[in-house]
Amino acid sequence: MKFAFFDTKPYDRPAFDKYGAEKGIEFKYFETKLNEDTAELARDFDGVCVFVNDTVNAKVIDKLVDMNVKVVALRCAGFNNVDVKYAFGKVHVLRVPAYSPYAVAEHTMALLLTSVRRIHKAYIRTRDFNFSLSGMTGFDLHGKTVGVIGTGKIGKVFINICRGFGMKVLAYDKYPDRSIESEYVRYADLPELFENSDIISLHCPLTEETYHLINRESLEKCKKGVVILNTSRGALVDAEALLAGIKDRKVGAACLDVYEEEADYFFEDFSGHIISDDILARLISMPNVIVSSHQAFLTTEALENIAETTVNNIIGYFENGQCPNEVCFRCGNAEDCKTGKCF
Ligand code: NAI
Prior knowledge:
Layout: E1 2-5, H1 13-23, E2 26-29, E3 47-50, H2 58-66, E4 71-74, H3 84-87, E5 92-94, H4 101-116, H5 119-127, E6 145-149, H6 153-164, E7 168-172, E8 185-187, H7 190-196, E9 199-202, H8 216-221, E10 226-230, H9 239-247, E11 251-256, H10 278-285, E12 289-291, H11 300-320, E13 326-327
Parallel strand pairs: 1-2, 1-3, 3-4, 4-5, 6-7, 6-9, 7-8, 9-10, 10-11, 11-12
Antiparallel strand pairs: 5-13
The chain binds 1,4-dihydronicotinamide adenine dinucleotide.
């Protein structure tokens, strides 16, 4: 079996080479992202293996079908970059629903601690032998209230980490899991969460419903000085509204591992270039904003799990004709396919 692997980075290859060789899958690595212009590279391959910033829209799907490419194997959990409705009946879309919720949740806490204890400032100052503490006052996380939106795999791990710090948790989920409620963790509706949280962390998927969940109106409801954490998907946050909130001093800090227009920049080296995205440039210039470039997943453990599951997904589909991790429109609103045999 031959798979065209798009948006390849050097850290992808070792694990995919290892698991691919074990199961007889040959990956051909392309550095370019998959889009309408590059889809042709997938000719003569059985499938494509793509990541978060590859584009699998209707035009790309049509090209893949023309070339008899049968499978789109996502090596990530989110599938907002795939037109799953259009894909139905044309190509099978497989994903990796979980690879390390710890990787993402721990990175979220790393960003939060860095921000509230000014570690990013300290690192730069002491390298320059500047040992002044002016402007470095942080605040205790203990006793603060964190609003967690999305209490799935990552949200739950993040809640446990926050509990370890003695924080109170207000949770919101479209499908609450009441088993996590306790004296310190309780579900609330969104307005209550916005009004009472010192910190808000996003762990829900990007859907039509959650697009720009953090916007001017929701920020208006928040406490002054609220810290916004987004390690989920960029478009959950209206970046322009966030920037306005930071300028107005309404938002105390923002930690972003994802950004609405990240596909144009993230994963690539733009040092020495002029950044034309003024909102991203202005956000990065703020002393209370920390941006990492969609790196929350990037641990050795997660990379191994991603490769192993992707290879098993491909084998499952080609050898057994079904894959439990198929993203299937027909099985109910793009939830994972219940049967693996919908079309
Ligand atoms: P999950 O599927 O286990 O949990 C998502 C939760 O969001 C579920 O409990 C679901 O009920 C809830 N949800 C769905 N619609 C909602 C809505 N309208 N409002 C509130 N909650 C809603 O997913 P998991 O593994 O916890 O991942 C969460 C997100 O993290 C993914 O969607 C993905 O976008 C992002 N992610 C980011 C990574 C990174 O490197 N920065 C890596 C992996 C995932």
